[in-house]
Amino acid sequence: MGVRGPPGRLPPRPPRPRRLHASFVAGVALTGLVAAMAGLGLVWTPYDHTAQAIVLRLQGPGGAHWLGTDQYGRDVLSMIMVGAGNSILVGAGAVGLGAVVGIPLGLVAAARAGRWPDLVVGRLVDVVFAFPAILSAVLISVLMGPGAATAILAIGTFNIAVFARVTRGAALGVYAREFVRAALALGRRRSDIAIRHVLPNASGVLIVQATIQFAVAILAEAALSYLGLGIQPPQPSWGKMLFDAQTLMFMAPLQAVFPGLAIAIAVMGLNLLGDGLRDLLDPRLGPRRTTA
After folding, report:
1. Would you tell me which of 57, 73, 129, 207 could form a disulfide with 53, CB atoms 3.0–4.6 Å apart?
2. Helix, strand or coil for residue 69?
């Protein structure tokens, strides 16, 4: 027999299992699909992505070439698989650069709010935001030459400003809480407080921002490659594949569909993942969660 509560009172309900957010599940599925395709492309592709066969140019999807071939006879599926790895490499490098430099700048600005470190960081961020992200990336790429490293630096420079501003805003909210005020009153160093208390409490916001910036970085890399300033041939890039396909829209429209669909899936997956992480990591949004 079950244990009964006091007379006149209902027994307590068992705790409800935690539900997964639908956006989180969809984001993990789409992002995992792109990551799996990129990982597989590192060790195996149906064909050599650089091998050309002019006699097989512009073939449609079929048994030999699942997504067809391009104007040089290269296998489109193999190029998309390798291009996924290149996009993830640039995106991860740009987000990593932005986080490694931007988060410490934001913590310093928040710890010295209203003083000269905060003013200097704020003015630097304003200068970066004064120029459109893609324009700044094009300028850096033109000055330093095209390539994956230049794309990482160009996109990462903008991400530094984003992470610095987001970190400062989140850190200021943590500094206003009672336990941080108590630590300051006890004479704890601000650097110690920032590392042990402020950064862990702001990590949820930063994780969500990282997923969003990852999606932005993939779009920016595709745009740079489309302009010829990103990843250079013979390495494939989704943006360069779109550029090559624009002259073939009436002859072979699928040449633009497949790389465009790859970009859409990657960006949508990261945006859904960020939305799901935001709702899961923010307890104030608990009632809004839906089952998957």
Report:
1. 73
2. strand
